[in-house]
Design brief:
The complex is a heterodimer of chains A (about 250) and B (about 70).
Chain A: H1 2-14, H2 17-52, H3 64-86, H4 91-96, H5 98-104, H6 109-143, H7 151-175, H8 179-196, H9 215-218, H10 227-250
Chain B: H1 4-31, H2 40-49, H3 54-63
Classes of the chains: A mainly alpha (about 250), B mainly alpha (about 70).
Chain lengths: ~250, ~70
């Protein structure tokens, strides 16, 4: 199984996917504090236009919070890019028929599935750490980290949401035959939860609640507010993985 | 416009990241003959026009042939 994980990692690096993803995550990591730095200038530029409409903009102060707002705003973007590039994880191999050989050599299907799952989790964790690390370094350097509370918890929650999305990606990879269907399925899950979060009665228990990490600093939310959403997400992750294994064991490779 | 010197710590890494991404993509396009869809001219244009990062991603998703 370690050999198969190694093969997966090698595939990621050799096809250049990891490099592309790495650069994009670094790019967005730098963009967050850069946008925060540019905010006063943007307002200044727009203030003439606003003045015509009778709006007066006062002094804009940039703090660490501005940078973290950008961080949580851009996080769905990097997640979508990661989903796009991982969509061919299983389906390319179905297409080429390379999994058949491995199964006939005696590696169990469970192990193939779990190796691929861990590779995706590992890659997402690594890339997310890079993204967070860069924003953190710049933010602390320019503004210190005052006024941001429970930041680590907020960042962890977004990571978990990413893990959930990756789980549904792997589930759809086991269900569907080409990467287009995988993307469609994962996309529907992703946006369905965002839409569901507009319904007040369930908004606090579904996984998309985990995207609101910023409210810990801005609206005085406390980590215990997110307990239900966390439990729900863990259950859904387990559900996706178990169903995924079951489906993958029966499907035609 | 904020002082350009203040923006340098952001600009330099951004430009470097961008150039690496563009070089990798262009090298891949120019050293491969066959693509899943489209032809070389199309992909070079896509990579350069969408160089922010979208162009290369689109190329690696839809253009790169599985070897």
């Amino acid at each position: 199984m370690t050999a198969f994980i190694k093969k997966e990692c090698m595939e990621l690096t050799r096809t250049g996917k990891l490099l592309i993803l790495g650069i994009i995550f670094i790019f967005f990591g730098i963009l967050n504090p850069a946008m925060a730095k540019l905010t006063p200038w943007l307002y200044e530029m727009l203030s003439d236009q606003f003045a015509d409409q009778g709006l007066v903009i006062g002094e804009v102060t940039v703090t660490a919070l501005t940078s973290w707002t950008q961080f949580f705003k851009n996080a769905p973007m990097v997640l979508i890019v990661a989903i796009l590039l991982f969509s061919g994880l299983f389906t390319n191999e179905y297409h080429k028929g390379t999994l058949v050989q491995i199964v006939t050599k005696g590696l169990s299907r469970n192990k193939i599935f779990i190796s691929k799952l861990f590779t995706v989790y590992g890659a997402w964790t690594l890339l997310y750490l890079v993204y967070t690390g860069i924003t953190l370094c710049y933010t602390v350097y320019f503004w210190g980290n005052d006024g941001v509370t429970n930041l680590a918890f907020g960042i962890f929650m977004y990571w978990l949401f990413g893990i959930f999305t990756m789980s549904s990606l792997v589930l759809f990879s086991a269900l569907c035959n080409n990467s287009g269907q995988v993307l469609l399925g994962t996309g529907i899950i992703f946006f369905a939860f965002i839409l569901l979060s507009y319904i007040p009665s369930i908004k606090n228990i579904i996984p998309s609640r985990l995207m609101d990490g910023l409210t810990l600093s801005t609206e005085g939310a406390v980590p215990s507010d997110f307990t239900e959403a966390l439990i729900c997400t863990f259950i859904l992750i387990a559900f996706c993985d178990i169903i995924g294994v079951l489906v993958f064991n029966r499907r035609k490779l | 416009m904020p002082d350009i010197k203040e923006m340098l710590p952001f600009l330099i890494p951004l430009i470097i990241a961008e150039i690496i991404l563009l070089t990798v993509t262009l090298r891949h396009i120019l050293t491969h003959k066959n693509y899943k869809h489209g032809n070389r001219t199309l992909w070079v244009i896509v990579a350069i026009v969408g160089m922010e990062f979208i162009g290369p991603v689109i190329y690696f998703l839809f253009g790169k042939e599985d070897s």
